[in-house]
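Researcher: Please generate the 3D structure of the following complex. Treat every line as part of one assembly.
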Amino acid sequence: MSMRPLPIPTALVVETAGLSKSYGSVQALKSLDLKVARHSIFALLGPNGAGKTTTLKLLLGLIRPTAGSAHINGLDIVRNGLEARRHIGYLAQNPRFYEQLTAREMLRFRAGFFYHGPRAQVEAHLNETLALVGLTDKANRPIKGFSGGEMQRLGIGLAQINNPELLILDEPAANLDPQGRRDVLNVMAQLRERATILYCTHILDDVQQVSDTVAILNQGELVAQMPLSELLQSREGNSYILVLSGETQPVQARLAALPWVSSIQVLPSAEHTTWRVIVSDDAAAQADLLRQVLADPQVNVLDFGQQKRELEDVFLRLVERGVNEPL
Ligand code: ATP
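Model: Done. Output below.
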């Protein structure tokens, strides 16, 4: 008699090692090592053809790896595929519903396969799901009248009907208007308390709003995997932008000599002088940078601010420059 493998409570919900997939001569995924921590919202980013869908399909057991391995909750996706699949909820990119059903009926239909229990418990679970995805007032309307955002939220409700530990969402907010996107992101943020979310997207703005960890794929290769906050921190240090008028040379020389100023870039600017000051000690810069400049009576400060790194900037650098060049 074969033993049913017991789930092992691991800190990592998803862990892949050298996971690879080739289609003939096309290497869709090249030796991926992915680590998704429990209760994170993990974004898989990448341009078209990067290997995002291939990764999700491998984890879902829809295709088999050519090399390497992956574990979900400690369960091998090939050897214990069926069991691993029980821990996953999945929202496909273009989900299809029975549109003549109401949202509640559709959820009840899905629960019939994936959520078992006494009738009252099932109904309570449906109510809880409807509240979670913000569809309580629309529960009894046919799905065919739903907006794109409502459809996606219903899709997320359906995907989590079995209380999965891992929710895999393929482009959950693509093609939605800003309000629809915001609502979907809110549902994802709420779900984090009870599940881990791995989703792929090409909308950088959404990633910045809702994810805590990001992996960037390019041409089948992992080019970055780290907490979003770390990715957005410049490796060369934080920077400040100053727009100045007057005689700026003396103060520039004085600043450049300070130990916490790494460099001063003079940006092209027609009327005024614009500096990007890169610092190695942010606390020192916050306390002293503006003060140092204002101390010089020959200079007027027209604008001053910290330059925030945008994900788009990092993404384009990583994807366009390639793996081995510095950010
Ligand atoms: P998109 O954002 O366009 O969906 P993606 O990052 O999801 O892109 P994948 O769909 O994983 O990319 O594709 C990765 C590579 O593998 C691409 O070059 C694609 O053409 C190739 N590929 C995917 N599926 C197959 C297949 N069944 N047969 C042959 N090549 C395939």
